[in-house]
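Sharing a chain and its predicted structure for anyone who wants a worked example. Both blocks are below, sequence first, tokens second.
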Amino acid sequence: MRLRYSSALVTGASSGIGLEFARVLADRGCDLVLVARRTDRLEALAKELSTVKVEVLAADLGSEAGVAAVEQRLADSPVELLVNNAGIASGGPFTETDLDYEDQMVKVNVLAVMRLCRAAVGPMVAAGHGGIINVSSIAGEQPLRGYATYSASKAYVTTFTEALAAEVRANGVHVTLLKPGYVWTEMNPDGPARDSMQGRIWLEADAVARHAVDAVEKGKLMSVPGVQWRAASGLIQALPRQLVRGLTSRFDAST
């Protein structure tokens, strides 16, 4: 099925969900701009996706120069679909975490998302056509002890995306929020065995990417892959906040 968007820029495209976004979009005939830090991986992926036009842009979205380079690329030649997938995470007591890394997390997970949306959405509104996928997480719906900055950064992406979608929908721009649960990626190298009871609730990265692309194609605001995670998301939103805090603290203590 050919996509309604002919060109897309994907951040964090060298691995995980971002790499699968690139594959899904290429399979649907979408020319690509692939953004990540690791040039060698991007170039290898570009060779793999030979059926479409692929441009490689090496950029660190935790740096001012990296974000500015992607903003300039979007200004020079606007794309019809932006996929804000790049993100980093860390865990541990906030008082013991590396402050420089926490700062980088905010830059990549929050500021880069906001700035690239701003760079991409103007031309989309002017054209009356475009799409944006912002990758958040179920973690953004709850205060996760041990992941204070990460869960807060994803909460920003969730709220920002919902607000942006409301602002630009009348202009023909569809904004979709992807909220996955646990996903098998390089960010989660210590996950459970795939055939274990816990492992069965984890998601494959390619299925996550397909779910989000289908959602933006249909003009849907939310993409929550996996019935187990849709149930979890609904439950978290329905329960009183105080109860959610208590449950997440117990879960943290048991893991």
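Comments welcome. The longest strand covers residues 31-36.
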